[in-house]
Write a structure and sequence with these properties.
This protein has 215 residues and is of the alpha/beta class. The protein is built from 4 helices and 6 strands; from the N terminus they run E-H-E-H-E-H-E-H-E-E. It has a single domain (3-85, 121-205), classed as Rossmann fold, CATH 3.40.50.1240. This is Histidine phosphatase family protein.
Length: 215
């Protein structure tokens, strides 16, 4: 059976001066630092035998995928299954205004962290991403594929691949900006997983999805 690798790349830092949870909102570009992160991810993957580059339809993912595809002279295709998770608080500042954790009107959205009650169920995210991963693996069989997407879907896919519970502490996700989570396959079976942070040198000044300090 052939060996294939599917790399799950998280997008780079986003320009987000309003410090809101942008989620699936359109029009959010990478920041200047985010573009530099994307180039570092591309440099990291440049020696690999990449057969296809695919990404979430959101702009930040497309912009992260661009230098990776260019390094291998490949087109970029989009896949709706790679999109960011749904979230009730999209477009709001977390912990502020109408998105305050202390607002009793919001308590129902935090009632069940196992689902989770504030957004797209964890198992649904895993199902759609794993489906996209297996399609990419089949198309790139014997070589390698790159999928550019978002932190939570990547992390849940990793937890599932490792047989760990999907419920987790968001502060402990090992999926930083422009990180590369690599799923190694023999045939259609995952046999191992690797993780790299090619943009780590740029983390000190970076911000997360809601505009807070990354480190």
């Amino acid at each position: 059976m052939s060996s294939t690798i599917v790399h799950l790349v998280r997008h780079g830092e986003v320009q987000n001066p309003e410090k809101i949870l942008y989620g699936r909102l359109p029009g959010y570009h990478l920041s200047e630092r985010g573009r530099a992160m994307a180039q570092l991810a591309a440099d990291h993957l440049a020696p690999r035998d990449i057969a296809l580059v695919r990404c979430s339809p959101l702009l930040r993912a497309e912009e992260t995928a661009a230098p990776i595809a260019a390094a291998h002279d490949l087109p970029i295709s989009t896949d709706e299954r790679l999109i960011e998770s749904r979230n009730h608080f999209e477009g709001q500042r977390m912990g502020h205004g109408s998105a305050r954790f202390t607002d009793p009107r919001n308590w129902r959205y935090f009632a069940n962290p196992f689902r989770p009650s504030w957004g797209e169920p964890y198992r649904e995210q895993v199902a759609r991403v794993i489906s996209a991963v297996h399609d990419a693996r089949a198309e790139a069989e014997g070589r390698e594929a790159v999928l550019v997407l978002h932190q939570l879907p990547i992390w849940l896919t990793r937890l599932s691949a490792e047989g760990r519970p999907l419920v987790h502490d968001p502060r402990r996700r090992q999926c930083r900006l422009c990180s590369v989570t690599s799923l190694r396959f023999v045939g259609d079976r995952i046999v191992g997983l690797d993780y790299a942070e090619p943009a780590a040198a740029l983390y000190a000044e970076a911000t997360d999805a809601t505009g807070g300090k990354l480190v």
